[in-house]
Specification:
The complex is a heterodimer of chains A (905) and B (121).
Chain A (H helix, E strand, L loop, with lengths): L5 H8 L4 H26 L4 H12 L5 H38 L1 H30 L11 E10 L3 E5 L4 H10 L3 E15 L6 E8 L3 H4 L4 E4 L15 E4 L1 H8 L9 E4 L2 E9 L13 E4 L24 E6 L5 H17 L10 E5 L13 H34 L1 H9 L4 H38 L12 H27 L3 H7 L9 H32 L10 E6 L8 H16 L4 E8 L7 E2 L2 E2 L15 E5 L3 H5 L3 E4 L12 E5 H7 L9 E4 L6 E7 L14 E5 L11 E7 L3 H15 L6 E5 H44 L1 H9 L4 H30 L15 H27 L3 H6 L2
Parallel strand pairs in A: 4-9, 6-8, 16-21, 18-20
Antiparallel strand pairs in A: 1-2, 1-10, 1-11, 3-4, 3-10, 5-8, 6-9, 7-8, 12-22, 12-23, 13-16, 13-22, 14-16, 15-19, 17-20, 18-21, 19-20
Chain B lengths: L6 E2 L4 H10 L4 E2 H12 L3 E2 L2 H13 L3 E7 L5 E7 L1 H26 L4 H7 L1
Parallel strand pairs in B: 1-3
Antiparallel strand pairs in B: 2-5, 4-5
Helix pairs in contact in B: 2-3
The chains are: A alpha+beta (905), B alpha+beta (121).
């Protein structure tokens, strides 16, 4: 049977518009059908008229048959055009894949570029999404769950936002703020001691009021949540709810976990339930164990007898779920009114300026007057990751362009054969889109690891329950990959489709004199962005140096604080003191411990003020930080802390006797006795009637903050500690090895020596100071990482682009050398051109960095954002890199055999 | 209704019948219709235009493909042929129909089964 091949049909019909053709096709087919059918009936013996009538009758009702057919034909055309498009795309992609497989080196380089560029973005999107766009997971109706905050404009303390409240205020809100249908208060998560002796460990505990889980709309995965009577004031039941993650890690997900006992802070608790899988608290710091706030006394050092009833103790955070129909404004007004009443009550502080601000649960959207460093770092690094992507894009576009130029002759042949320019652009785009798809997939793998890494650095305490790669992240990555593929592919595609046909066919694959402006522009962009990023990296590295050289007045590396919370054990004051004396003796006997001391009050932990006077002085000079602060210490304190005695003498065992002596710090000596020696001076401390004699001066150390914190401090033997602070003992240990490494071993040894004690917390000084340095360290690490990426991308990109272009200029080099140019001339020519582009990009990049300095100022530790050393350093490094990246291709070009180059014509 | 009157085609069956008609060789509309009439002895009630609707529908779904050709008597006609997808579809629909028909036939013509009714009691 004679048939016409489908391809020809397409060719013949290509000029017609589909819908017209479809109508004509249908009418033609109806006519053909009727004729054939009539012929058939005639052959069966009908008259021509009767046959014609019968054909029409069989065809169907004249009113609707044609209409129905047209309808079906339209459907057919629509379906087929979609199918055809899909087929074309499939062919284009298949072609692209064939092309890419032919040059595996290029493909791997391009995919790696994209994996880094897109991966960095996807990673940071994951962080930003979690921080700024989404509430903590597992919370139902999070949009109507509001945190309660008060914006104060106090005449005494200035303007501030308070998010901590007293428990009595919470109970008043609960009964008075009718705009909320659920209100809850919590404290934590804070370290909580679990178990005793060698079994003791530390978990993250949160003390909660009734209605906590209802407010967040959480369901139990096992058992139940707290009943009202279990959380009732003043003393609740010792029951606990554990998180799903803790259930899995500590109990292996055992089905019979409900009813099991938990030894928390030395008291017995019973597990009554497990929270839903995705819920781990209302903050980014995950909670392992929830307990009723009314049963939490003794679990956390802060919660003492009377804390719950005290209007002056501001310690709980409050959130509420808005009643359906209630507006946030109404709720805020109710809270403000209740706070005014609260402030006027005894112990309420009297500050009635507070205005309620309802906040979102989204971590980065909490109401604040000052930008939070971690949030700023996250935003900045997200911006930086976009810069890295731009660099990667510029690089890839340049590579694709170079590749397209090499294929100029092939493309010209296609154009000459009648392939439309639109189709050509599609073919080239298919290649970049395929690369982008591969790069995007690789980027997801990068994000998988990257997100964990980054959030571990950003949020130390967050337990990574979920991988962080979710639907939103995949969608974001896909979107970025599509945009990247389009952007990087369009530049070369449009350029190539405009190519001069005959010229290209004649000349063959080489660039000749018409060097591409697009490529230079891309090199410039990439170079400038790299310079900008490197300046950031340099600044943060300098900042990190400053942090590491920080002198706090004591030894940061070998000192650790040892504390144990025995509040839950019901000890008397002498029993408590005995615990610490035993721990001191234990520690001193341990190998690896250089010295140990007991203290009441310690830097970066707690410090106490005391009534204080100097006989004969009516008014003492004051410092903004207040003071003087008193530290009551055992004789080996200064040796243990690594603080120098600069004048006079250290304490001895003899000082524990009745004769009162003190050591003052340098600041105090300078402020109280300027120009004279404080030694032998008399202080009157607390309620003592006798003089306390100054016997020494110690180097000043920081009290609470790593920056600008000079404080009046003095030290007395621990036997003379003011009576009302004497209970607050703590052990300080100086290890021989680095404290961070030794801390865990020392904790285990102490735990073994004291099998009846709850968890003994051992924290290195570095660990204690770390939170204050975190945002600076963070900035340095993140910028360092991205800066190295940028430098790597920039160098590789510049190198590959240069070697490509040199390879294409082989002919030109051959001509030059044939005309008498020497090797050095050719090398100089290429290197000079590369350095010119590089120098220009560095100038642009440094100018951008100068202008953008203010964005990073707050995140730098004692480094100016315009630090000249950094700017000069970056310039030099980048020029050297450009030199390196151009010398190798230049040397290769200089080895061109002029005859061989000319013969390739 | 007389027992000998032509039966209407069950919804959806026409597509399968047309696929079957095309399964040996490409054909134009009239050839398909003639085959259907001859094989059923005119026992099915099908309008000619309905066959074309089925053809267009299946062409849109990629089950068949079409091209203009010339008949033995030198007339222009559109020739249809089954694609690979169409063959899969035909095999699948045929299996389904056979199973369906067997079940329905068994239900309608089988004798009541004593043992299963005993279970109900």
């Amino acid at each position: 049977m004679p048939l016409i091949r489908p391809g020809i049909r397409k060719l013949l019909h290509l000029a017609l518009r589909r819908s017209d053709r479809s109508v004509r096709d249908v009418d033609e087919e109806i006519a053909s059908h009727l004729a054939l059918r009539a012929q058939q009936f005639e052959a069966r013996g009908m008259t021509p008229q009767a046959a014609r009538a019968e054909a029409l009758r069989r065809f169907g009702p004249p009113s609707s048959a044609r209409r129905h057919l047209m309808h079906a034909a339209t459907y057919r055309e629509r379906r087929m055009s979609v199918l055809e498009k899909l087929t074309t795309i499939r062919h284009d992609v298949a072609y692209a894949i064939r092309q890419l497989r032919r040059s595996p080196g290029f493909t791997v380089a391009a995919v790696a570029l994209l994996a880094i560029g897109i991966g960095a973005n996807a990673t940071m999107f994951g962080v930003v999404d979690r921080l700024f766009l989404q509430p903590p997971p597992g919370i139902a109706d999070a949009g109507r769950v509001k945190t309660i905050n008060l914006h104060h404009r106090s005449s005494v303390f200035g303007e501030y936002i308070a998010s901590s409240f007293s428990y009595p205020f919470f109970t008043e809100l609960r009964s008075g703020a009718t705009a909320f249908d659920h209100l809850t208060a919590w404290f934590g998560p804070r370290p909580l001691a679990l178990g005793r002796g060698t079994q003791a460990q530390q978990v993250q505990g949160t003390a909660v009021s009734a209605d906590y889980f209802t407010t967040f709309g959480v369901r139990p995965a096992r058992g139940r949540f707290f009943a009202t009577n279990e959380v009732a004031e003043p003393v609740g039941k010792r029951v606990a709810v554990i998180s799903y993650g803790y259930w899995q890690s500590a109990f292996g997900g055992a089905a019979d976990v409900v009813g099991k006992p938990l030894d928390l802070g030395g008291s017995p608790f019973t597990i009554i339930g497990v929270a839903a899988k995705d819920f781990s608290g209302a903050t980014l710091n995950a909670t392992d164990v929830w307990v009723p706030v009314t049963a939490a006394q003794g679990l956390f050092p802060f919660i003492r007898p009377g804390t719950l009833a005290s209007r002056g103790s501001l310690w709980i955070r409050i959130v509420g779920h808005l009643r359906p129909g209630a507006s946030p404004a109404l709720a805020a007004a109710q809270v403000t009114t209740l706070r005014r009443a609260d402030a006027r009550q005894p112990g309420g502080g009297g500050d009635t300026t507070g205005v309620a601000v309802l906040g979102s649960l989204v971590p980065g959207q909490a109401p604040t007057l000052r930008p939070q460093p971690a949030n700023q770092v996250a935003k900045l690094v997200f911006a930086v990751s976009i810069l890295v992507l731009l660099i990667a894009c510029a690089n890839l576009a340049n590579l694709l362009l170079a590749r397209a130029l090499r294929r100029q002759r092939e493309i010209a042949v296609r154009l000459a054969l009648g392939v439309s320019r639109a189709r050509l652009i599609r073919l080239l785009l298919a290649e970049s889109m395929t690369l982008a798809a591969l790069g995007g997939a690789a980027a997801l793998a990068v994000a998988w690891f990257g997100e964990r890494l980054v959030s571990a650095v950003l949020y130390v305490n967050r337990t990574p329950l979920d991988s962080g790669v979710d639907g939103r992240l995949v969608a974001f990555t896909a979107a970025i990959a599509v945009v990247t593929g389009l952007v990087t592919g369009l530049i070369p595609a449009v350029r190539m489709s405009r190519a001069d046909l005959t010229g290209a066919l004649k000349q063959g694959p080489r660039e000749g004199a018409q060097r591409s402006h697009a490529r230079t522009a891309l090199l410039l962009t990439q170079g400038a962005l790299t310079a900008l990023l490197l300046v950031g990296t340099g600044l943060f590295v300098r900042s990190l140096q400053q942090i590491n050289n920080l002198n706090l007045g004591f030894d940061l590396d070998h000192v650790m604080y040892v504390d144990v919370n025995v509040d839950g054990m019901g000890y008397t004051a002498p029993e408590r003191a005995a615990v610490f004396n035993r721990l001191l003796a234990d520690a001193q006997a341990m190998p690896g411990v250089a010295s140990a001391a007991l203290t009441v009050g310690s830097p970066f932990n707690n410090s106490y003020a005391v009534s204080f006077s100097i006989p004969g002085r009516k008014k003492l000079p004051e410092l903004p930080d207040g003071g003087p602060y008193i530290y009551s210490v055992s004789p080996s304190f200064f040796r243990t802390m690594g603080t120098r005695i600069v004048q006079g003498r250290d304490f001895t065992e003899a000082d524990l006797g009745d004769h009162r002596v003190a050591i003052v710090n340098e600041t105090m000596a300078r402020v109280y006795w300027p120009g004279t020696s404080p030694l032998g001076q008399c202080l009157v401390v607390d309620t003592a009637k006798d003089c306390t004699e100054v016997v020494g001066v110690a180097a000043s150390s920081r009290r609470q903050r790593v920056v600008a914190d000079t404080t009046l401090q003095f030290f007395v033997p621990i036997t003379h500690a003011p009576s009302y602070y004497a209970d607050e003992r703590m052990l300080i240990v100086r290890s021989v090895a680095d404290a961070s490494a030794a801390a865990d071993a020392i904790r285990r040894q102490l735990q073994r020596a004291e099998p009846n004690l709850p968890y003994v917390s051992v924290q290195s000084m570095a660990q204690i100071v770390a939170p204050q340095l975190r945002s600076w360290r963070l900035g340095a690490r993140m910028f360092g990482l991205f800066g190295v990426l940028a430098l790597l991308l920039g160098t590789l990109g510049a190198y590959s682009v240069l070697s490509y272009s040199v390879a294409q200029r082989t002919h030109e080099m051959g001509v030059r050398m044939a005309l008498g140019a020497r090797v050095a001339d050719v090398v100089r020519l290429i290197v000079r051109q590369a350095l010119a582009v590089s120098a220009l990009s560095i100038v642009v990049g440094l100018a951008l960095a100068l202008a953008g300095g203010r964005f990073v100022r707050d995140l730098l530790f004692k480094v100016s954002p315009h630090d000249p050393a950094v700017f000069v350093g970056v310039g030099v490094v980048l020029l050297l890199t450009a030199l390196l990246a151009s010398v190798i291709p230049a040397m290769r070009a200089s080895r061109t055999d002029p005859m061989a180059a000319l013969r390739t014509e | 209704m007389k027992a000998t009157a032509p039966l209407p085609v069950i919804k959806g069956m026409l597509d399968v019948l047309v696929l079957r008609a095309l399964s040996w060789a490409p054909a134009h509309g009239v050839e398909i219709i003639t085959w259907l009439e001859e094989r059923t002895g005119g026992g099915l009630e099908i309008e000619d235009s309905a066959v074309y609707q089925a053809l267009y529908r299946m062409e849109g779904r990629g089950l068949i493909a079409a091209d203009w050709g010339v008949t033995e008597n030198n007339r222009r006609a559109r020739y249809y042929r089954v694609t690979a997808r169409g063959r899969t579809q035909l095999a699948q629909e045929t299996r389904r129909w056979v199973r369906y028909a067997q079940m329905v036939t068994a239900l309608l013509t089988g004798a009541p089964d004593a043992s299963s009714r005993a279970g109900v009691k």
